[in-house]
Design brief:
The protein has 114 residues and is mainly alpha-helical. It has five helices and no strands.
Length: 114
């Protein structure tokens, strides 16, 4: 419980800092970037999941997304500095999945062309 109080106090201190008061747009930009990454990940993965599993993978993917959201929220509350690392790992995983998907698509197109 003490971690949650510390995280809340830390966020409050940051929000009230002179730098954040003068650069309020930074929070907006960070929110847009994070929301954009999440949306891009979902938009890229859902067609592949639905096509590959005939729609049966959608509930599994949705449950995994919800679990990840709860996990990141708990990390943010109890270990706020670790959130940055978690987000970097998630972004790297997204890049890896997208590159793997592109490789598979190229192989399939090459196989069809041959």
């Amino acid at each position: 419980m003490g971690e949650a109080v510390a995280a809340t106090a830390g966020a409050s201190t940051l929000d009230e800092s002179t730098w954040m008061q003068e650069h309020a747009w930074v929070g907006v930009v960070l929110g847009i970037v994070v929301a954009g990454l999440v949306h891009t990940g979902k938009a890229a993965s859902r067609p592949v999941i639905n096509a590959g599993t005939a729609g049966f993978g959608a509930p599994v993917a949705s449950t995994a997304e919800d679990g990840a959201a709860v996990g990141i929220t708990l990390v943010a509350i109890f270990l706020p500095l670790l959130v940055v690392l978690v987000l970097v790992v998630l972004a790297a995983a997204l890049v890896w999945v997208l590159s793997a998907w592109r490789r598979l698509r190229r192989r399939r197109q090459a196989r069809l062309a041959a």
